[in-house]
Amino acid sequence: MTGLFSRDVQVKTMEQTVSHTEKLLGQLCSVLAAYTRKTAGLRDKGDALVGQLQDLSRSEDPELQLGLKNLAEDLAMVQDYRQAQVERLESRVVAPLKAYGDIIKNKRAEVKKFSADRSREIKEIQKLEKIRLKNPADRQSISQAEVSAQKASNNAQRSTRLMEEAIMDFQKNRLEDIKTIFTDFITVEMLFHAKALEIYTHTFHNLESMDLNRDLEVRTLLSAGRVRVSDFLTTRVDSPVSGLSQYHSPLQSPSTRGTLREQLRPQAEPIPRPRNTLRRQRHLEELQREEEEEEEEEEEEESDTEAPPTRRSYAAQYAQVRRWNN
Q1: Based on the structure, what is the number of domains in the chain?
Q2: Closest CA to 254 of 217, 215, 301
Q3: End-of-domain residue from the set 186, 210, 234
Q4: Are residues 84 and 230 part of one domain?
Q5: Could you tell me where the DSSP H helices lie in the chain?
Q6: How far is the CA of 30 from the CAs of 93, 96, 103, 162, 220, in angstroms?
Q7: Residues 60, 13: one domain?
Q8: Residue 253 to residue 250: CA distance in whole angstroms
Q9: Distance between CA atoms of 307 and 301, rounded to whole angstroms?
Q10: Could you give the residue ranges of the DSSP H alpha helices within 209-276?
Q11: Do both 245 and 156 map to the same domain?
Q12: Cα→Cα distances 287→111, 267, 293, 310, Å
């Protein structure tokens, strides 16, 4: 009877172990599956943000436009890594936990089989005791009952040994799987956040290096150009032509401004002629130097307002490096 009681305790312990594992791992699987779905939803929201940034960049001035374009490209790249994060969470974390549904089902079947062998053993022992009490002189019946009881006891002992080994393997695999699952979970999270931090760092420096004064200068020059053009048209109608020789619009190219200056110079007041050749030569040199300085200033203004910034997104640099490597 001591052996029967011991096996009964073992059955209950095995059933509790399987039930405990089913409950906790089931809850864990549910939470991590929800975590993965939320991460996928965050990926979708990130894609929507990328689209909004792209739409916004199309309506902005060059400096801010480039900054928003680079930001959108980098955020899109982060969402690509987030997609990889979702796929890895599903394959390395959620899927192994889901697999425990079938594992626990098989263990329950093994425990049920062991419980059936134990019940059969108890039944045969009870039958033997009953025959001994009713017919103590019936040696043949008692002998047959003893053989059946011994056979049932042997089957129960073998089942107990196999079940103990199975439960130990189950416990060992469960602990190792939990360790592996959460190691993979942390690895997946570290890979994503490390790459995202690298991209965000580059994007942060890109945003910090934006010179918004450049856009303000462009706006100011455009506004000043429109005002001066209107003044130019009014002056051309109401004033003598001599007042136009000093106007240079920032919207005009150097060749256009030079042509305008050449067209207006004959109509302007004549330059006083120097009294001797030396003075005339110096005067001509000064005029030429002034014109060269004026053209240089105009070219610098154009380069400041028209030269596109050279900043690039992390995604663009990464794509170029990949092309070089391939």
Answers
A1: 2
A2: 301
A3: 210
A4: no
A5: 2-57, 62-89, 95-134, 139-208, 212-238, 254-264, 277-306, 314-325
A6: 11, 12, 17, 32, 59
A7: yes
A8: 8
A9: 10
A10: 212-238, 254-264
A11: no
A12: 107, 18, 10, 37
What is the extent of the structural domain holding 231?
Answer: 213-306
0.85 surpassed by pTM: no
Side chain identity, residue 23 = K
Residues 208, 67: Cα–Cα separation, whole Å:
9
- Token pair 């309506």 in the structure block, residue: 59
Question: Residue 98 falls within a domain, yes or no?
Answer: yes
Which structure tokens are listed for 157? 């002992």
d(CA 276, CA 283): 11
* Whether residue 306 has pLDDT greater than 70: no
Residues 246 and 201 in one domain: no
Residue 312 resides in a domain: no
pLDDT, tens digit (0-9, with 9 covering 90-100), for 108-147:
888 888 778 777 777 777 777 777 787 777 777 777 777 8
Segment 63-73 mean pLDDT: 89
One domain for residues 54 and 201: yes
What confidence score (pLDDT) does residue 285 get?
67
DSSP code at position 300: H
| Residue listed under structure tokens 């108890």 | 122
Indicate if 206 and 223 belong to the same structural domain: no
61 and 6, same structural domain?
yes
- DSSP type of residue 307: P
